[in-house]
UniProtKB/TrEMBL annotation:
Signal sequence segment: 1-21
Key word Signal present: yes
Catalytic activity: a 4-O-methyl-alpha-D-glucuronosyl ester derivative + H2O = 4-O-methyl-alpha-D-glucuronate derivative + an alcohol + H(+)
Name of this protein: (4-O-methyl)-D-glucuronate--lignin esterase
Enzyme class: hydrolase
Organism: Bombardia bombarda
Amino acid sequence: MHPTTSTLLLLLLAISGLALAAPGTTLPRQAAACPAATTTTTTYEAVDNKGLPDPWKFANGNPVATADDFLCRQAEMSKMLQQFELGDLPPPPDSLTATMSGSSSMSLTIKVGSNTKTISVSITKPPGSNAAGGPAMIGVGGVSIPVPAALGRITFGNDACAAQSNPASHGSGWFFDLHGKAHSAGATLAWAWCVGRIIDGLEKLGPAKTGIDPARLGVSGCSRNGKGAFMVGAFEKRIALTVPQESGSGGAACWRISDSEKDKGQNIQTARQIVRENAWFSPKFTTYVNKTTSLPADHHFLAALVAPRGLLVLENDIDWLGPVSTTACMKAGRSIYEALGVKGNMGFSLVGGHGHCSFPSSDNANLLSFINRFLVGTGTANEVEQTTAKDAALEMSSWVGGWSAQPKITLPAAA
Ligand SMILES: *[C@@H]1O[C@H](CO)[C@@H](O)[C@H](O)[C@H]1NC(C)=O
């Protein structure tokens, strides 16, 4: 190579290295919201739809063709999920103050109306982080994926925010102490709100105090907490990378597909079962659990809500989690990323033959590539779409065959 060219190349690499190290500059963000002029309605009708709801059509039948349309359709999907299954996501609190006590504990005092709660959050700073702070992974109930030592860690004690003991535990936890015991939110959506307060605290204190750059946060959790991690990523737009692990039904699976698998004799968790097991969903959901074809939103919309941010969905082949349902549902989700021109920002990996929530080492490189791309800001994410579920069982055409033609949408770069 000509010396001048190689010098230039080195210079370019050095410059891009600097740019990548600057917080947030090159990572896909979702700063834009639905323009107020086209804000969606507040309540939606039930539908009668065997296939998965069409992401490319508004509830009123209008097509989703432009970037603004998509941002407004995301707002609609969010409201539909809240209305039918998750309960209402409250606005930010009236006030929040944050202090660090020592180097590994953040204390938050949160006020909603006349209710006040003080909670503490355990933080492990990224080693050697400077004033700009480093990336961190928030673990819903702890982190059970192998996270590089260079990342910080935040343990989100989700049970204390909203309990998950049984259906009757709805209403217990600091979310409900603030919003009232009768609040409609199911535990998984309440967790999304509570994680938002942790991010508020990190933003208020700043990276010099916490060691963490709030623009470089991931979220992960497994099984029930994987359902939670997916909800956190879908409803908290400040999360840069979402990694739900073995979230199964209630997470990466679609309700309709899980019901269809159940009808075929699979031992799979369904909507009907899940509301009897726990308080993960809103009491509102009970009305629809025996007729999931009436839901205007299904869980491929969770992927649509995370888009275009980083999303790596990890699954297992355990029957109860619904391997066919998670694969087909997330294939549908990935087609939404594809329409946005960022298919690679979402990965799906279903590797079987290991214990529930034990991370398979064959996924190490995929996970690392997503963490590097979306949290560290280096390299490219691996193209990840693998599953042991058989193509024939997926019946994709019956799930998405009725959709409008896939548009080509370019989302504006975040501010
Ligand atoms: C759903 O079906 C189950 C069993 O078939 C029944 O016990 C339950 O009451 C039904 N729920 C609703 C809301 O109709």
